[in-house]
Design goal:
- The chain contains eight helices and twelve strands.
- The chain has one domain: TIM Barrel (Alpha-Beta Barrel).
- It is about 35% helix and about 20% strand.
- It has an eight-stranded parallel β-barrel with strand order 3-4-5-6-9-10-11-12, surrounded by six helices. It has a two-stranded antiparallel sheet with strand order 1-2.
- Helix 2 links the parallel strand 4 and strand 5.
- Helix 5 runs parallel beside helix 6.
- The relative contact order is 0.16.
Length: about 270
């Protein structure tokens, strides 16, 4: 498995990241949304087998409904072999500590490797999550309290890297002024979809600037939340071409067939 140092963090990660959403969320082209039916035991075996192939990063969120799947998988492997990336919509410092405690308890772990401010907006929006719960999707300024909690948690080892996810090009540029953020994940796909502002070229330039600044960078929505599944090979090959400015690709995978396919294409596409 190809690995890389994730920015200036101490994390050595596989360049393919296991996106866990398809275990519990229906994915696919419009009119063909399925998947989402793996129970924790089934998912645990898949994650364990993927780890044996070297896929050592498991990406989740407090609103994907896949914490039970990750928790079960962690009982079947050596914890230090896995990098867990979790996400939260926390705003304040109090929220940040509560989110971290929830993450540790629900995942059954003493620490979270990468703790993300989830889907940071350029303009705050009131939303509901995948479970129907209302929340405030805040700006980076709104969420500095939560970030501060996780920076403090790094001192005791409860968090190993602090991070931000966003679909917004302006927010990517704002991160350059916040050195406390170690890792960034953002959208990138051949359809140019799920980019909230600017062109695809401007988005790529913002990614490049973060990479050059020493941040860890991985991308999401390679298959546009499953909508590109029928052309997955083309979509994944397209995303892999940016290997000089992207550390890793977080691809939602439903089973080992997906894992093998993405690894094979990585071997083909990466120098």
């Amino acid at each position: 498995m190809r690995t890389i140092q994730l920015g200036q963090s101490k994390l050595r990660v596989s360049r393919l990241i296991y996106g866990s959403e398809p275990f519990n969320l229906k994915k696919g082209p419009d009119g063909e949304r399925n998947q989402g039916d793996k129970n924790p035991e089934q998912a645990a075996e898949i994650l364990k087998e993927a780890l044996e192939l070297g896929v050592n990063v498991w990406d989740t969120s407090d609103d994907y409904g896949t914490h039970p799947h990750i928790r079960e998988a962690l009982t079947r492997v050596i914890r230090s072999d896995v990098v867990i990336a979790d996400k939260s919509n926390a705003l304040t410092e109090k929220d940040g500590w509560a989110a971290l405690e929830y993450s540790k308890q629900s995942l059954g772990t003493d620490y979270v490797d990468i703790m993300f401010l989830h889907n940071v907006m350029h303009v705050a929006v009131d939303r509901t999550d995948s479970t129907g719960q209302p929340f405030r999707s805040g700006t980076l300024k709104d969420r500095m309290g939560a970030l501060g909690a996780w920076v403090e948690a790094k001192e005791s080892g409860m968090v190993r890297a602090t991070a931000l996810s966003t679909h917004n090009t302006k927010v990517l540029r704002q991160v350059l002024d916040v050195p406390e953020i170690d890792v960034v994940c953002t959208t990138l796909n051949m359809a140019g979809a799920v980019i909230e502002d600017g062109t695809l070229e401007e988005h790529l330039e913002a990614i490049r600037a973060l990479k050059e600044d020493g941040r860890g960078v991985y991308v999401i929505k390679v298959l546009n939340a499953g909508r590109l599944r029928n052309s997955a090979a083309d979509a994944v090959r397209w995303a892999y071409q940016f290997h000089e400015i992207v550390d890793a690709w977080n691809i939602g995978m439903y089973d080992m067939n997906d894992v093998w396919s993405n690894l094979d294409m990585m071997e083909e596409c990466l120098p």
